[in-house]
């Protein structure tokens, strides 16, 4: 799947906030107006995003409504997997480790991360504090 330009990503973010939106709705949200040139720009961006697989157009509706083809979480997962594929031989652990070490987490964020790991893998959360070698 191709990457999004910053303008396309801002439209996708707007679609994530809504169930669906018309070109005019998106133009007003992004540009604070819906002039012909602004709606034409949004229309062109949506055409490209549809071709890239990020947006779906519901043509049965009038006006046509656009919806995000994936959730924000799915988008982030794809982007992170792409980074892992490109820089870490497809492995997510080195990417996650680097992110945590580089950005540094405050106490609340570390607690949230521990809670998330415990929720996702409750039987593994307290095992072998020496670490495991699974990739």
From TrEMBL:
Matching Gene3D superfamilies: Winged helix-like DNA-binding domain superfamily/Winged helix DNA-binding domain (1.10.10.10)
UniProt xrefs under Pfam families: Penicillinase_R
One function term, GO molecular function aspect: DNA binding
Keywords from the named record: DNA-binding, Transcription, Transcription regulation
SUPFAM superfamilies referenced in this protein's UniProt entry, alphabetically: Winged helix' DNA-binding domain
Claim: Transcription is one of the keywords in the record: yes
Transmembrane segments: none
Annotated GO biological process: negative regulation of DNA-templated transcription
InterPro entries: BlaI_family, WH-like_DNA-bd_sf, WH_DNA-bd_sf
Family note: Belongs to the BlaI transcriptional regulatory family.
Protein name: Penicillinase repressor
Organism, scientific name: Rubripirellula tenax
């Amino acid at each position: 799947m191709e990457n999004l330009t910053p303008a396309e990503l801002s439209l996708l973010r707007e679609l994530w906030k809504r169930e669906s939106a018309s070109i005019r709705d998106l133009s007003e949200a992004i540009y604070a107006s819906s002039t012909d040139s602004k709606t034409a720009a949004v229309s062109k961006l949506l055409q490209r995003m549809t071709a890239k697989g990020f947006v779906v157009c519901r043509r049965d509706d009038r006006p046509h409504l656009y919806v995000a083809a994936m959730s924000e979480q799915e988008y982030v997962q794809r982007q992170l997997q792409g980074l892992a594929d490109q820089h870490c031989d497809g492995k997510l652990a080195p990417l996650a480790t680097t992110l945590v070490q580089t950005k540094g987490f405050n106490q609340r964020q570390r607690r949230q991360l521990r809670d998330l790991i415990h929720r996702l893998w409750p039987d593994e959360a307290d095992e072998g504090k020496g670490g495991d070698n699974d990739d």
